[in-house]
Amino acid sequence: MAAPSRHCLLLIGALGVFALDRFAQGQKNRTLIFTKENTIRNCSCSADIRDCDYSLANLMCSCKTVLPFAVERTSYNGHLTIWFTDTTALGRLLNFTLVRDLKLSLCSSNTLPTEYLAICGLERLRINSEAKHPFPEQSLLIHSSGDCDSKEKPESLGWQTCMYIAFLDMALFNRDSSLKSYSIEDIASIANDFPDFSYFKTFPVSSNKSYVVTVIY
């Protein structure tokens, strides 16, 4: 039997590298952040963890403790899951943060106030309030990455360049109704058009572009 040609060996090697690369992409870790007893745990998990199972997360994921006052504004281009019990810590984690794919799980029966979180670039939202209501997980597609300007690279997006802003009403976790949203395009001034969101008056938002604002409730 003839030995494989050099061309065949190169092709097999290339296919092997491609397969390994695809496998590695499929194995990308997921970011899980949970708040409990005034502490924040930031975890990298190789698999989905059952919602609000703190012991399993500490066992199966690589986690580190972050002090609440040390939380820095950052961006998440991949999937982010947050387990929370109140809106204070959640606000520190999410307000004015770039998140594309977000899941929020309420891990207590607390009644949440009507507070709005402002999230940049949110494309998909999932919520789970099973701790409060026996309601199945809900999912909402807000917009797709294809809607964005192709010249804007995900890693360069920030509040100065973000075109899509989502306002998330935290009181939606008190209700057992379906997740809803509406969007308003061509918003020139968020501070003027949404005066109730006073924090935009002190945060640097560009005034020379228009925004698409989505309210989720």
TrEMBL record:
Q: Does the keyword Metal-binding apply?
A: no
InterPro entries, per this entry?
A: ECPIP (IPR029250)
Q: Which residues form the signal peptide?
A: 1-26
- Spans traversing the lipid bilayer: none
* UniProt GO molecular function: identical protein binding
User: One of this protein's GO BP terms?
Assistant: mitocytosis
Which Pfam families does the UniProt entry name for this protein? ECPIP
Keywords in alphabetical order: Signal
Superkingdom is Eukaryota
Q: Which GO terms describe its cellular component?
A: extracellular exosome; migrasome
This chain belongs to the protein called: Exosomal polycystin 1 interacting protein
Question: What is the scientific name of the source organism?
Answer: Sciurus vulgaris
Highest lineage ranks of the organism? Eukaryota, Metazoa, Chordata, Craniata, Vertebrata
Gene this chain is encoded by: EPCIP
